[in-house]
Design goal:
Elements: H1 2-48, E1 56-62, E2 65-70, E3 76-82, E4 85-90, H2 91-146
Antiparallel strand pairs: 1-2, 3-4
C-alpha cells in the first residue's frame, strides 16, 4: 500500500512541476518576443541616421500595418524611460538604453531557462522513481502469482 501512496505523491508532484514548466515556457516565449522587439527597435534607430532628408520609410502602426512617413528628426528618439514617462534622447543614447534592456532581457531568459531545466530534471527523476516502483510492484505481483 505504501507504494501506491508513493505513486500518488509522485503524480501530484509531477503535476505541480508540469504547471511550473508551462509558466516558465510562457515566460521564455514572452522574453523572446520582447528581445526581438528590442533588437528591431535598435536596428531601426541605427538605420535612421542613414536616411536622406526626403526619403520615405514604412512606419509600423501595429498588427502588421504600416504607413509611409518621412522622418523629420533623425537625431533624437522618444523613449519610454519607465512608469509610462517618455523622454527625448539622442539616437546613440536611445540605442545604448535599448541595448541595456536587451542585455537584461537575455540575462533573465538565461535564468528562467536554467529554472526550466531544473524543473525538467526533477520531473525526469520523479518519472524514473515512479517507473522503478511500478516495476517492483509488478515483480512482487508476479512472485505472488507464481507461488
Amino acid at each position: 500500500m505504501a507504494e501506491r501512496e508513493e505513486l500518488a505523491r509522485i503524480a501530484y508532484e509531477m503535476q505541480v512541476y508540469r504547471e511550473q514548466a508551462q509558466v516558465l515556457q510562457q515566460q521564455l516565449a514572452n522574453l523572446q518576443l520582447n528581445y526581438a522587439s528590442l533588437q528591431s527597435a535598435i536596428q531601426t534607430l541605427e538605420s535612421i541616421g542613414k536616411l536622406t532628408d526626403k526619403e520615405e520609410v514604412l512606419l509600423p502602426i501595429g498588427s502588421g500595418a504600416y504607413v509611409k512617413a518621412i522622418i523629420r528628426e533623425r537625431e533624437v528618439a522618444l523613449i519610454d524611460i519607465g512608469a509610462g514617462v517618455i523622454a527625448e534622447k539622442p539616437i546613440p543614447e536611445a540605442v545604448k538604453l535599448l541595448n541595456s534592456r536587451a542585455e537584461e532581457s537575455e540575462a533573465m531568459r538565461k535564468k528562467i531557462q536554467k529554472s526550466f531545466e531544473e524543473v525538467s530534471g526533477k520531473m525526469a527523476e520523479l518519472e524514473e522513481t515512479a517507473n522503478r516502483i511500478v516495476g517492483e510492484m509488478r515483480k512482487a505481483k508476479g512472485e505472488k502469482e507464481s507461488v
